[in-house]
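Follow-up to my post from last week.
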Amino acid sequence: MPIVDLMSGFVAELRRAGLPVSLTENLDAMEAVKVIPIEDRDAFKYALGATLVKNSSHWRVFETIFEVYFSLRGSQYNIVNATDEQADEFWRDEQDQAQLGQGEGRGAGGGGLEALTPEELANMLMRALMQGDQAMMRALARQSVARFAGMEPGRPVGGTYYLYRTLRNLDLDNMMAKLLEANKAGAERQMSSLEQRLAKDEYEQRIEQFKKEVEAEIRRRLVADRGAEAMAKTLRKPLPEDVEFMHASREEMQGLKKALFPLTRKLAARLARKRRHGRRGPLDFRNTVRHSLSYGGVPAEPKFKYPRPAKPELMVVADISGSVAAFARFTLMLVYAIQSQFSKVRSFVFIDGIDEVTKHFKATEDIQEAIHKVNTEADVVWVDGHSDYGHAFEVFWDRYGKDVNPKTTILLLGDARNNYHASQSWVVKEMRKHARHVYWLNPEPRSYWNTGDSIVGEYGGHTDGVYECRNLRQLEGFVEKLV
Amino acid sequence: MANAAKGAVAQAASTAGTSTGFASVEQVRSGLKGVNYLADDGIAGVVYLAQRLGKPVLIEGPAGTGKTQLAKSVAELTGARLIRLQCYEGLDESKALYEWNYKKQLLRIQADKKSDSWSAVHDDIFSSEFLLTRPLLEAISAADPVVLLIDEVDRVEVETEALLLEVLSEYQVSIPELGTITAKQIPMVFLTSNNTRELSEALKRRCLYLHVDYPDMEREKEIVLAKVPDISENLADQIARIVRSIRQLDLKKAPSVSETLDWARTLILLGVDHIDAQQAKETLHVLLKYQTDIAKAAKELSVDE
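User reply:
Got it. Predicted complex:
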């Protein structure tokens, strides 16, 4: 395929994945590939990255798409090019070709791998991991996929299925224990705990790298089978800021957590700046007179005081029942990470009972730890541990209502799925009467609101606004508005 | 005809780079190594590309990973003069681009009040003699090869960013009284950002983007070996391993490369050639700057027993 067509397909896929690639950037990339030969794959990748990806959190998405579009191509990566009856024969062919490939120096020292028994293969893998032998690890990854993944052409199965099958056969957890033992036995003297820990980290990283090799190998074969476009579609993942709180997988959660920290830093810097520059303060008489001296006593240049607007007090009232727990956690993390922007932050969590958790955040600087304490120690179950907004609000008003004053902004977090309990929406009405603002953040898509047992409309009518907060991007937008 | 050809040659020579054009990515990498900067594939590739395409490079990444150093090293490598514009909140045109030397202008007007007609004086006081060049204009108008470093560009306000756009895309500065000053040769431009705010799309679009992250273990070891005199390979290896393990923890601030180097120097001063748990614990404060981080690292590396 000519490079131009390949590139336009690639850029189109980047855009579909949500990366903002502009026309000029596309042209830059075309210029860049002219001076960098495609054969130098790493340099080629970085050239495309430098011209097309302008945000480091998008790099992973870029990398995946790059792998799909510019993966090594060649007949040795085909899953099969014949019918099923010929599959056996094909595997032999395929392995011959693999060997040829190794002859060209791709997997040095990997010749004759297919003749090994599984035990021998495991031993070789262990040796490769022990020594950190990259070439050998790559060759073994290829061999493992060929042997264990059981890939069939045209089968509409995702790559994770093959990955699971390959890794199950390799039993890497056990491998880790064996590696550590071998390392201990190989040492001349007693190893200190520090050395053991370092060795463990080292092996963990090598195993991780091996897994990545296996994954890449599977992907290459799938691309060869299905074509780049179809493959890119199955691999398409949302950018970290677009991941929905309510449906995030564990891996995505990790990504979200990583994305949250730089975000809060940016947000805090931006808010502080906005506060200082938003408007001018009153005339600074002293400063004006002082500056008038250089104009011979004429106050030609009026000086103004820096405005010091009052920071709002914040009360966060969050539903932490199963379905919306992740959302509550992220909002609390975000709020506490920028708490310097508020004069005071108090937080309450509820399911059907309610409990104040401010003290957990005060006790430690580590937000993660505080969140963990909230999850384990807060007393939030009253009857059965199913969300009861009505009761929780009622208790809240009863216990803490007197602390709500005109400086307070109240954030209510949850999907308002009340399990058909009494809504007690008068509490929200009262809140609004006493507080400066009351906002409701709902992690559900707007189209689900007020369906089933969701009564967000009933509460929402008494607030200053209900906001859809499905992902980090929306949450960030709201917080900025709030301060 | 001959003239046009000559012009084309001059054009080619100017776009080919500051003093020496790089022939390949490999050459950039080895060249940078020669001036004691260990670049990985990404860094060398982007520097090469920037030089070939004549585009500015926007470098982002955590603090202390050698972003500013990269610009300095490239300047050293190409034998170019480094012009540095340190950004801060409140930076404006008169500090970044140019300013009229109004005191001198006043003197000029007073010196011959009688003799000259108004128009002569007017033309005269708005000539380059009365222009104070600031870093951006200086980089554009320099006759010798220069590398322009715009440091911590995320500190200026979004509105001020617009000042940079003309310089970065056209390599020219427009001065209403004088006209447009175009670069005689295209300087290499590096912008660094600590990512405290999102830069504008317009700025990003004009730049190549380079994210400099913490180096992997092998590279960090090489950096320690290159930058710390008299360090043994064994110790450097151990330092790099421990730092990698620490970076994997969930910390407030992960140790940067410069902190790794500080730690290595500290250990050398203490005469350590093999780190044991006790020494690691006693010197962790060089590497980490928050008490909670230190406690966590000490606990995680089980060096408190």
